[in-house]
Design goal:
Blueprint: H1 5-30, E1 32-35, E2 40-42, E3 45-46, E4 50-51, H2 52-55, H3 59-75, H4 79-100, E5 109-112, E6 124-125, H5 128-150, H6 173-182
Antiparallel strand pairs: 1-4, 1-6, 2-3, 2-5
């Protein structure tokens, strides 16, 4: 059965959604989550603005997992795609729980460094870093849900190169006769 562009569309939607999810999670690790005024100390050390990778270890590995899931979605088929979809859905929900639960913001502010005592300001949470993580989690969960729901019907990318069946196309009988004569066989003696 030949795959039409319409039958490949859900697969390419999953691939695109997972790539966007990985990019959003990768970006959330690099974006500032907490703007820290000069001279503020965390665990006794002066620190600058805190990015997602400073606050949590999970954004970058989950982004890499999303990229690996693209390759798995393209190569797997049947129940393996459904298992991958359930796993992606669970990881996407877990990312949302980690981001919205606020555990990434558990930072112990230890005060002000000497010489910065008169500087005004308190650490402020930003919007863009967590928003990118939430976007990545939602996209990963959506890609997982689509893969779970429709994955068994999606074409496999390597299917084009699978070995054909043992049935060969029949030649025209007249062509077979002429080929036999060309090879030096007498086609009238065959049974």
């Amino acid at each position: 059965m030949a795959s039409t562009p319409a039958s490949k569309r859900p697969l390419w939607i999953v691939v695109g959604v997972l790539l966007l999810s990985a990019a959003a999670l990768w970006g959330s690790a690099r974006l500032v989550w907490i703007e820290v005024p000069p001279g503020t100390t965390v665990d006794g050390a002066v620190t600058g603005d805190l990015t997602g990778s400073d606050l949590a270890a999970w954004p970058t590995p989950i982004a890499l997992f999303g990229l690996a899931a693209v390759a798995a979605a393209l190569g797997a088929r049947g129940w393996a795609r459904r298992v991958l979809g359930v796993l992606l859905l669970a990881v996407g929900v877990w990312v949302l729980w980690l981001t919205l639960g606020g555990s990434a913001y558990d930072v112990t502010w230890t005060g002000r460094a000497p010489g910065y005592g008169s500087e005004p300001g308190e650490p402020v949470r930003t919007l863009w870093g967590p928003a990118a993580a939430v976007t990545g989690g939602v996209l990963m969960a959506a890609g997982g849900a689509l893969l779970t729901w429709r994955g068994h019907r999606m074409p496999r990318m390597g299917a084009r190169y699978a070995a054909p069946g043992t049935q060969r196309a029949r030649k025209d009988p007249d062509t077979e006769l002429w080929d036999a004569l060309s090879d030096g066989d007498d086609p009238t003696t065959r049974s």
